Amino acid sequence: MKNLKLWTLRYTLINVLYFVAFCTIHAYAAVFLLDKGFNNTQVGLALALSNILSVIGQPLVAGIIDKEKILTNRLTVMFSSLFLLLGSIFLIFVNTEKVPIFVVFVLMYTVQFVYMPMMIAMNFEYAKAGCNINFGLARGLGSAGFAVTSFFLGKAVENFGTNVILYVTVVAMTIMVLHVFFFKKPKTEEALEKAEIIKEEKGSGGLISFIKKYPFFIVFLIGTACCYFAHNMINDFMIQIIRNLGGNETQLGYATFLQAILELPVMALIGYVLKKISERHLLIFSAVSFFIKTAILIFATSMIGMYVSQSFQMFAYAVFIPVAAYFADNVMAENDKVKGQAFINSAITLGGVFSNLICGKLLDAFGVKTMILTGVAVCLVGVVIVVIAIYPMMKKVPKRA
């Protein structure tokens, strides 16, 4: 367990800073764009376009990292954070012209999604180089960073306007760029030997080859996309749901704080839980929890219903994210591991594409209740697909020690 605390602390800071910016850019996307004069349909279009670009960009960048070895996970995280920093500065000074706001925000939203799998893959990459990192704890504290940011950001937006979102992003990404610059993997003899072995291994190649090599994994991704249709629907249009229940931006901050802070204990303990419960059962459990979380909103008549729904985040998202990361690392060949993480994030993002395209229009045409019913139906389909896909794949996964 050499240097466990040091490496976990350093990797945790990367997660915290990432999710501070994830809160500002993603959780408050609708708030920001609506304030700049966009309507619900245009907000949905912006987020859908971002997600489409992310679906394309994640496996593309991952493929370059896995195959070419020119671009690394660390450099991807550093340059992406720099882009978010510069984009935020640009939006601070150009805040009335809708076209440049739309373009830059879409690119920022996209880039942040694109480099998430590389940040996850860094954990497994550094672990193989002897850097012992408690991934669940680091990821859980990342969610805590999201929670604390959200708690204060809602009130800050009410008092100072939506540009406060950009200022927080600038601070977080400045620290991130500097920190990742010095977050270098040690070059031990064992790590160098491992790197040579990996170079000689063949990955799956292109998309078609990947599908042929991991057919049930692709089915699993389809189920994941359906579950995250509902998840993204709630996150991206949360302010509209909350206003329908009589709340405002302050309650948005409380709701996102609640769901994020509840992720911490689950993610921190996930390594222990995986020794007791299989990845297969945990992934199915999380899929069912996504369904319950969404279904609760059908019956919600006040913010209490919203808070109960958000509480299920600890069983849905908090379980799925770390377990899926370990799962992909287990079932993929060495030269497919980053790609595996990227495809999981692409599936999550793809769910967001359809959610943004469909839910924005549903909101404008039929209202919140119809949107939620649609999310429940799609999520139920996702649960069924995940159950069908997960069993054949788990035969290939070795038992965890």
> What's the overall average pLDDT, rounded?
84
Q: Radius of gyration in whole Å, from Cα?
A: 20 Å
Number of DSSP strand runs: 0
Structural class: mainly alpha
- Basic shape: globular
Write the CATH architecture name. Answer: Up-down Bundle
Essential attributes:
mainly alpha, single chain, 0% strand, 19 helices, Growth Hormone, Chain: A, 401 residues
Summarize the structure.
With 401 residues, the protein is mostly helical. It has helices spanning 4-27, 29-35, 40-67, 73-93, 98-114, 116-128, 135-160, 163-182, 189-200, 207-213, 215-236, 238-244, 249-261, 263-276, 279-299, 303-311, 317-331, 337-365, 368-394.
How would you explain this protein's 3D organization?
The model is unreliable at 195-202 (pLDDT under 50). The protein has one domain (4-182, 202-394): MFS general substrate transporter like domains (Growth Hormone, Chain: A), CATH 1.20.1250. The chain is 83% helix and 0% strand. The protein is globular, with a radius of gyration of 20 Å. The protein has 19 helices and no strands. The longest helix is centred in the last third of the chain and has 29 residues, at 337-365. The chain is mainly α and 401 residues long.
